[in-house]
Design brief:
single chain; 187 residues; mainly alpha; 84% helix; 3% strand; TNNT
């Protein structure tokens, strides 16, 4: 009876040892997977940081090119204004340049408001879904605005064509222009 009990104890001890070994082996695999996951996350973060750095450099280069082009255009306009020698034309150039600068600033302001930084490293799965839904809604809004602008542009082009046609229809068939540039209809 003691032999049977001893065998049973040995068997139980072996089973327990096998379970302990399996548990530690499983835990070791999980730790390795966790380490690999942490390394992947670290790699993704570093890649994203590199991409953001590259994007910032490109934006800076683009801004520098735009400034250089703007200066070149301003210089060319100044030269042409000086060659014309007319104060009025230089004033018109200044007004146009001022309008262009304001328009560009307004466009940059609008783009800066619309461009949102995307930082999703810290978000869990539910928040990522919410963020994706939010971005989807934002895209829908932008598409709707684009559609409205395209329709307005089509309408304006149509109106311009109709006005041009109307003016062409109203032109007299035969006109005479005197030296003071007045037009007279010849009957």
């Amino acid at each position: 009876m003691q032999d049977i009990q001893k065998k049973r104890q040995n068997k139980d001890t072996l089973e327990l040892q096998c379970l302990i070994d399996a548990h530690f082996e499983h835990r070791k695999k999980e730790e390795e997977e966790l380490i690999a996951l942490k390394e992947r996350i670290k790699k993704c973060r570093s890649e994203r940081a590199e991409q953001q750095r590259i994007r910032a450099e490109k934006d800076k280069e683009h801004q520098a090119r735009r400034e250089k082009r703007r200066k070149e255009e301003d210089d060319a306009k100044k030269k042409s204004a000086l060659s014309m020698g007319s104060n009025f034309s230089s004033h018109l150039q200044k007004v146009k340049r001022w309008q262009e600068t304001n328009r560009e600033r307004e466009e940059e302001k609008i783009l800066a408001e619309r461009r949102k930084p995307l930082n999703v490293d810290h978000l869990n799965e539910d928040k990522l879904r919410d963020k994706a839904q939010e971005l989807s809604e934002w895209i829908k809004t932008l598409e709707a605005e684009k559609f409205e602008h395209m329709e307005r542009l089509k309408r304006q082009k149509y109106e311009v064509r109709e006005r041009i046609r109307g003016q062409e229809d109203r032109k007299p068939l035969c006109t005479y222009t005197c030296h003071c540039h007045h037009q007279y209809l010849i009957l």
